[in-house]
Specification:
six-stranded mixed β-sheet; 8 strands; 4 helices; 172 residues; Aminopeptidase; globular; alpha+beta
Length: 172
C-alpha cells in the first residue's frame, strides 16, 4: 500500500516521506497532493475539532453571506464571512467597480457587523493585501495587528481586527 502511494507521488512529481509508528505500528507514507480525495478537508477539520473541544468547546462556524445581485439576479459582489468563537471573520468583500464610492462596502460591513452582534460576536477580523482595502477597514474602525511581508512578493498581507462596543446578544 505504501509503495503504491509513494510511486504515485513520484509520478506526480511530489516528494514523499515515510515515517514509522502509525496506530498499527506500520510505516506511514506522507504524500503531498494538490488534489485530495473528497472529504479529506472535512475529516481533518473534524479530528482537529475533536482534539480541541476540551479546551475551547466545539467549533461551530456559521456562514454570514450578503450577496449583491444585478438586475438579472446574477451575483456580482457582496460579503462572505463566518461567525465562530464569538468573532466574525470577513472572508471576502467585493464591491463592483461601478458601485464603488457610494458607501456600498460600508453598508455591507455594517449589515454584517449588525448580524454578528446579534449572534453574540465580540468583534471582527479580516486580512487583506497592502494594495487592496487597508484604508477602507481602518476607516471602519479596524486596527492592524499583524503583517506578513512580501506576500505576495513586493506587497504585504495585513491582518486587522475590530472589537465591538455594544454588549453581545446570544452565542453564535
Amino acid at each position: 500500500m505504501i509503495g503504491n502511494a509513494v510511486r504515485a507521488a513520484a509520478v506526480r512529481g511530489f516528494p514523499e516521506t515515510t515515517i514509522g509508528g502509525g496506530s498499527t505500528g506500520d510505516p506511514i507514507a506522507l504524500v503531498p497532493t494538490d488534489s485530495p480525495a473528497p472529504g479529506v478537508f472535512q475529516a481533518m477539520v473534524r479530528v482537529l475539532d475533536e482534539s480541541s473541544r476540551a479546551v475551547i468547546g466545539p467549533a461551530q462556524p456559521r456562514l454570514l453571506v450578503i450577496p449583491i445581485h444585478d438586475d438579472k439576479n446574477a451575483v456580482i459582489g457582496g460579503f462572505w464571512g463566518t461567525t465562530m468563537f464569538e468573532w466574525l471573520h470577513v472572508g471576502l468583500l467585493f464591491v463592483p467597480e461601478a458601485m464603488r464610492g457610494r458607501n456600498v462596502g460600508s453598508a455591507l460591513m455594517a449589515a454584517a457587523e449588525a448580524e454578528a452582534r446579534q449572534r453574540g460576536c465580540r468583534g471582527a477580523h479580516v486580512d487583506t493585501f497592502s494594495f487592496q482595502a487597508a484604508p477602507f477597514y481602518q476607516k471602519l474602525g479596524f486596527t492592524l495587528f499583524g503583517v506578513l511581508d512580501d506576500y505576495p512578493p513586493g506587497h504585504s498581507q495585513l491582518y486587522f481586527r475590530k472589537v465591538f462596543d455594544a454588549p453581545r446578544a446570544s452565542s453564535g
